[in-house]
Specification:
Strand content: under 5%
Shape: globular
Largest sheet: 3 strands, antiparallel
Number of domains: 1
Radius of gyration: 17 Å
Oligomer: single chain
Helix content: 40-55%
Structural class: mainly alpha
Strand order of the largest sheet: 1-3-2
Distance between the termini: 28 Å
Number of helices: 7
Number of strands: 3
């Protein structure tokens, strides 16, 4: 494994935001991956042939992906690359800067999550989108709500610019990695 590939592996293993339900609601699986994924404990969706996959957060994320370097690692997981990954791969930014960007994003995710209304839904993205779709006019809200609104705007920027997620409030195209 060359130095760049080692850096990319380290970056992905340190991040995990795509695995934890921060970036995506679900991930598409190939038909041959459905049974093995289910055997590993993933919540697999099978009923709609166009939306077969597993839900997030992935139960195999335990501080890092427990199957990252195994044959069971789904193709879709390997295929998704965020903008930070792409910049490291193109050697536009060093790994240390990429890890800092990811850590700053994780901090913002935690701050927003702490301010979101309580929910039994384990998927952050679904809870965040629900907040965005039902948010009241910030001009008529209290200070705490205005703080959440401000952080939500910053997080929407992070979704698009850092992670390349542009469909937060719209239906994703069928060929996207959700």
């Amino acid at each position: 494994m060359d130095e760049t590939q080692e850096a990319l592996t380290q970056l992905c293993k340190a991040c995990g935001l795509c695995c934890t339900g921060r970036l995506f609601i679900w991930a598409k699986l190939r038909p041959a991956e459905l049974d093995p994924a289910e055997a590993l404990g993933m919540t697999v969706f099978r009923s709609d042939p166009t939306q077969r996959g597993f839900g997030h957060p992935c139960p195999l994320w335990q501080g890092q992906c427990t199957i990252y370097e195994t044959p069971h690692y789904p193709k879709v997981c390997r295929a998704y690359t965020c903008n930070v990954f792409d910049e490291v791969q193109a050697q536009k930014i060093p790994l240390t800067r990429a890890l800092t960007i990811i850590e700053e994003a994780k901090i913002l995710f935690r701050e927003v999550e702490a301010l979101l209304p309580a929910s039994s839904n384990p998927n952050f993205r679904e809870r965040f989108v629900h907040y965005l779709e039902t948010e009241e006019d910030p001009a008529h809200s209290n200070e705490a709500d205005q703080g959440l609104h401000s952080k939500a705007e910053a997080l929407m920027f992070v979704y698009e610019k850092v992670f390349g997620v542009k469909d937060l409030l719209e239906k994703p195209a069928e060929d996207e990695f959700l």
